[in-house]
Design brief:
It is a single chain. The protein has 237 residues and is an alpha/beta fold. Helix content is 38%, strand content 19%. The chain has one domain: TIM Barrel. Strand 5, helix 4 and strand 6 form a beta-alpha-beta unit. The chain is globular. Bound molecules: zinc ion (ZN). Zinc ion binds next to strand 5.
Length: 237
């Protein structure tokens, strides 16, 4: 059967101190197991561009998985990249470019006793990863709710993040990820006009032929959902 799924990760092997951070984190051991499972279940791991070909109706047979990492945490470099390299899997990291080399300041209201603060990739590491085959996508400059800020700032958050990442890594930035999965028609129009080929949302689901390239659904591979929603149907069909 034909199936395409975009998986969304945040931290890999990061600290998980409460329900929220546990939801946004998988251990490196679990991550390694999941990467192995994709292979065992017969998925071919492809880039977002290939997912667009699938959604656009190009005849592609088989099971396709695409790996995306939101926010650009430093633990991607330390814990996820070595595993991806081992399997030769492509991946896309959505960076919050205005905060590169700093921490997830947009979450600061949720920090608890110093926990919850996570370091983000700096430009040197991003450049190294880009040279190592990782694709970078844009996730705005500062991670705002794009539907709640003035139109001019919304436009800058989208376009400037694309331009800055392209400038720093020397590679094109073709995909965008809406912070908090928050978008409306105006936000989608700006993303299109900025020259992106597609954008990922936070809605759950598989990618289907005919899907809108600017509302791509994803699956969050939490430890409990993983086997039932990703692997078992693939093994059984
Ligand atoms: Zn985010």
């Amino acid at each position: 059967m034909n199936r395409a799924v975009i998986l969304v990760y945040h931290s890999v092997g990061g600290p998980a101190v409460d329900a929220r951070t546990r939801r946004l984190n998988v251990s490196q051991r679990m991550f390694s197991f999941q990467m192995w499972s994709l292979k065992a279940a017969g998925y071919r791991v492809v880039s977002l561009k290939e997912i667009l070909e699938f959604a656009g109706g190009t005849e592609k047979r088989g099971r396709f998985a695409c790996l995306t990492f939101d926010d650009g945490y430093m633990d991607f470099y330390d814990n996820a990249f070595p595993v991806l390299k081992k399997y030769g899997y492509p991946s896309t990291v959505f960076m919050v470019s205005g905060l590169a080399g700093r921490v997830n300041l947009w979450d600061s209201a949720k920090y608890k006793n110093g926990y919850g603060k996570r370091p983000l990739l700096d430009w040197q590491k991003a450049k190294e990863l880009s040279a190592g085959g990782v694709t970078f996508g844009a996730h705005t400059m500062t991670h705002p709710h794009l539907t709640r800020i003035p139109a001019a700032r919304m436009k800058d958050e989208i376009l400037d993040s694309k331009l800055e990442i392209e400038d720093r890594t020397g590679s094109p930035v073709d995909f965008f990820c809406y912070p908090y999965g928050d978008y409306n028609k105006d936000v989608m129009r700006e993303v299109r006009e900025a020259g992106f080929l597609g954008a990922t949302s936070s809605k759950r689901g598989f990618v289907l032929r005919g899907d809108d390239f600017f509302k791509l659904k994803r699956m969050g591979p939490g430890p409990m959902t993983w086997l039932s929603s990703i692997c078992m149907p693939a093994i059984n069909t």
